[in-house]
Amino acid sequence: MNDGVTISVFELAQKFPDQETARNYLEERRWPDGPVCPECGGLDRIGKRKDGYYRCNACKVDFTVRTGTIFERSHIPLHKWIWAMYFLVTARKGISSVQLSKELSITQKSAWFMLQRLREACGNDLEVLQGIVQVDKSYVGGKKKNKPLSKRTKTGRGSAGKTIVIGIRENGGRTKAHPIESVNIKDIRKAVTASIKRGSTLHTDELPAYQTLRDEYGHETVCHKDNEYVRDGVTTNSVESVWAVLKRGLHGVYHHASEKHLARYVNEFTFRLNDGNVKRPTMARLNSLIDATAGCRITYMELTK
Question: What totals of helices (H) and strands (E) does the chain contain, helices first?
């Protein structure tokens, strides 16, 4: 029975049984005041045509609710797109393209393309964090023991051959994360200043690059080398918990994420921590992802070149 918060797969299928119901829902969500021309932004001279098409009589452009979104030029029915979004926001550790292909009765290749487009939309977060913000970095990549001998690095460091990901989490608020080139001053400063409002207070470990931010931010540290993890409310435990969720999903569900696509996988996990949080009603989570799909089109060639 629906408790008003959780929606089962069966209930979702009843709500969106076909392309027409899904299209109507997406139109109401994207255009609450009526269709808007993606070319000129007009809504006064829009004519309705067949099969979900509209024509702007001002600039003579034909468009649908797919235009300018991740759904554009996709042959997959819109209700399957909504189901895919449902699986993505409700799966704690994510859903593989193999599993999604079975759920939607599409090819694995199409399912992979869908998921990559959805991950692109998950990264459409321009909010700047503020207040007390925890910052930490982690090294993400395949486990050495799972690699062929010819591809194992010769060095003994656990970070060798892995990608650096910086995580930023506002106390009691949102999480942001993305890969960076290195942990030098330039890359750390660029990542922090792009995501955190100046004047906020940073909680970090003892990495030297963080010290250079003290002219723009308050700064408190914990010394992990001395086994110090919490001191008078100063900690990075909250942002470090993000790495546990991310790595369990990458190793347990996806098994491998190439450096080229890693940023999109990170987008997916941070989206579930924010707008896809399990404490929110299922439809609210789904609507947040639907809203993020506009302006995030990416082609198959861009993904595979």
Answer: 11, 10
The pLDDT value recorded for residue 157 is 47
What's domain 132-263's superfamily in CATH?
Ribonuclease H-like superfamily/Ribonuclease H (3.30.420.10)
Residues 136, 19: Cα–Cα separation, whole Å: 43
Cα–Cα distance, 305 to 302 (Å, whole number): 6
Q: What is the pLDDT of residue 148?
A: 52
Tokens of 218: 């308050």
Q: Are 168 and 137 in contact (CB under 8 A)?
A: no
Q: Which residues pair with 165 in a beta bridge?
A: 138, 179
pLDDT at 154: 47
Q: Find the mean pLDDT for residues 33-61.
A: 93
- The model's pLDDT over 230-257, given as tens digits with 9 standing for 90+, comes to 999 999 999 999 999 999 888 888 887 8
Q: Which of 9, 122, 15 is nearest to 70 (CA)?
A: 122
**pTM value?**
0.88
Domain ranges of the chain: 1-14+75-125+274-305, 132-263
Q: Amino acid identity, residue 75?
A: H
Give the position of tokens 């979900």. 52
Structure tokens at 145: 């023991």
Is residue 155 within 8 Å of 167, Cβ to Cβ?
no
What is the C-alpha separation between 69 and 215, in angstroms, rounded?
A: 41
Q: Which residue has the higher pLDDT, 22 or 161?
A: 22
Euclidean distance between CA atoms 279 and 89, whole angstroms: 12
Q: What are the Cα distances from residue 91, in Å, to 50, 95, 124, 213, 245?
A: 36, 6, 20, 37, 12
At residue 150 the predicted structure's pLDDT band, cuts being 50, 70 and 90, is low
Q: What is the side-by-side strand order in the sheet with 201-204?
A: 175-180, 163-170, 132-140, 201-204, 218-221
Strand partners, 55: 47, 62
User: What whole-number distance in Å separates Cα of residue 179 and Cα of residue 264?
Assistant: 10
